[in-house]
Amino acid sequence: MLVCALLVATPAFAQDATGAQPWMDVGKSPDARAALLVAAMTQDEKFALIRSRFAIGEKKPEEALTAAGYVAPIPRLGIPAQGLVDAGLGVTNPGGARAGDHATAMPSGPMTASTWSRDIAFKGGETMGREAWRQGFNVLLAGSVNLQRDPRNGRNFEYAGEDPLLAGTLVGESIRGVQSQHVLSTMKHYALNDMETARNFHSAQIGDRAMHESDLLAFHVAIEIGQPGSVMCSYNRINGTYGCEHEELLNNVLKRDWRYPGYVMSDWGGVHSASKAANAGLDQQSAGEVFDKAVYFDGPLRMAVGAGVVPQARLDDMVHRILRSFIAVGAFEHPPQRQPVDDALDAIGFDVAQRTAEAGAVLLRNENGVLPLAPGVRRIAVIGGHADKGVIAGGGSSMVGWTSRGTSAVTGLAPTTWPGPVMFQPSSPLLALRDALPDARIDYVDGRDRAAAARLAREADVAIVFATQWAAESVDLPDMRLPDGQDALIAAVAAANPRSVVVLQTNGPVELPWLDAVPGVLQAWYPGIRGGEAIARLLTGAANPSGHLPVTWPVDVSQLPRPTIPGLGFKPAQKPEDTIDYDIEGANVGYRWFAAKGLTPRYAFGHGLSYTTFATSDLQLHAEGDRIVARFSVRNTGERAGAAVPQLYVHLPQGHATPMRLAGWDRVELQPGETREVEVALAPRLFADYHPDDRSWRIAAGDYTVVLGQSAADTGARAALTLPARRLD
């Protein structure tokens, strides 16, 4: 076993916990242990904990592993080092600097969200936590929960869709999975970091009530479920104030109203002051020596504490929160152990990634049963998308560039520098299809010659076009269109072969101008290291599609709250503006916006087809004390086993500014002909409104309708419920 330099301190819990180091007594609460530790620390030791150092490049501490950040241990007190690694979609290894380290490249956030599965989200987090621990890290910069307010946001692939309940629940489960491995997870980016354009200075403008009923609700749900050790404050300003200096969001909402006991760390380059940030609730500055104008949480903050501008009690609270979080996840008793690759555990990670991809791919369209591919199909044309090599992934800090299958299967694609390089995970759909269908002839062309692609399609029984859209951190997409002439390619193939299928690998929704000519469309998001195998199983019917959209799919940008946003893309024609007006839609994000405006999207939030069919019946509602419970039946009415995702939407009393909200759901695996009785506890806050005057959630007296359907547009069974006015605790 290789022991990482990160673990130079001998764990002090091996000593007499009731003697010289009582904070090592595991019988005490995390808060009690942290308090004892703080009381034993010197001022220098306290200041050493409240800033991390960048662990990449020339300023990397010699003893640190190459990764996003590092805080040295304090051996005298048994305080372990902090090794921080980017891990939104798997454990990263920048430039392959850590020889021998590789990780599972997980599917993108929307793909996990499309599963609507708490268990799958937990298993994904558990996988990332386990792999981080075995590589020597105890902090994962994971837990991304910003809502998708616009499909052009370049970082949507890290997030979990547009609905606060769905996103908060699944991200919370992922965080819980990470921390089950004694690895602390962040939750990020708090708050309203919903666009990347000018993210370091733009101000997200939004009213207090709308903010609480949308983005903040997602964060709150994730905290309640996942209990993340740290919250990462965002780059952007919110109503004019930087996220890492925002006293209302950090002190008042997060720490007071929500009673959050953990610590707030900054994003890399998100700190602009010492005393203002510390007094507002920031607890740890991240890599300030590289990314900020100053290491504010060293000399400047020492001066502020010495002058009484920042109370000593505030410094002690910062340290207490950090220590408490590491104690709570067991990081003192279970320090990470850097170990050689374990093939068996590697296989487990691959299985989790493939299960996620198979459950999260969304069958958008399937006319005339073009899918699954018929057993008798003899000739298939596979076209475009580098399907002979792999599946695309997003760019930026979350990119997992080193797996046991190697690095990118396609090289040289621009941009080759930050936020690139463009990554194709080495998992070829073409090779997987050939393995799955050994008796079929499967030919491939890259699609650059549309005429050649059309000729190949014309000669085939079925043509499958793989279309890709690369997106990345720090830059937004300029539009909703597929790049590089892929729409024209798809149209040419569809004209040549009426039995054409399009497999989309995109950041999110795109325009589909060719849709009427294409009978089959599978949205495969960024499907991860086993994406090729998962896609092949879905196309052939070895796996039954069961994903449901976690976002509304607009027809085009004209349906968005902001059809035009200056500054999008790498070389924008216009400069970005200083503000983004989210008051336009307020809390009505996604399907709520479409319902409020009477718009019909291309595909509704929650939409997703299957190779079988389902029916729901017997919806009943009950108010049981503080609980609102829905009971109903789900039946598989088709001939294949599959997973139904019945969804429950509350329609608020007439005249409400928000017409409807997702209030609950379940994912139900059913055999052909099987019926299951289902009970879902509906989220009371989704029946309530936030009242800024007294910072409360209150249900208004009135008549509520709950609709049971398979998407936000499905007007299925409904039941009425009359509720009295009440305040939620």
UniProtKB/TrEMBL annotation:
- The domain of life is Bacteria
Q: Which family does it belong to?
A: Belongs to the glycosyl hydrolase 3 family.
GO MF annotations in UniProt? hydrolase activity
**Organism field:** Luteimonas flava
Keyword entries, A-Z: Hydrolase
Q: What is this protein called?
A: Glycoside hydrolase family 3 C-terminal domain-containing protein
Ranges for domain Fibronectin type III-like: 644-712
| SMART domains associated with the record | Fn3_like (SM01217)
InterPro entries attached here?
Cellulose_deg_GH3, Fn3-like, GH, Glyco_hydro_3_C, Glyco_hydro_3_C_sf, Glyco_hydro_3_N, Glyco_hydro_3_N_sf, Ig-like_fold
- Where is the chain membrane-spanning? none
Q: Which SUPFAM superfamilies match?
A: (Trans)glycosidases (SSF51445), Beta-D-glucan exohydrolase, C-terminal domain (SSF52279)
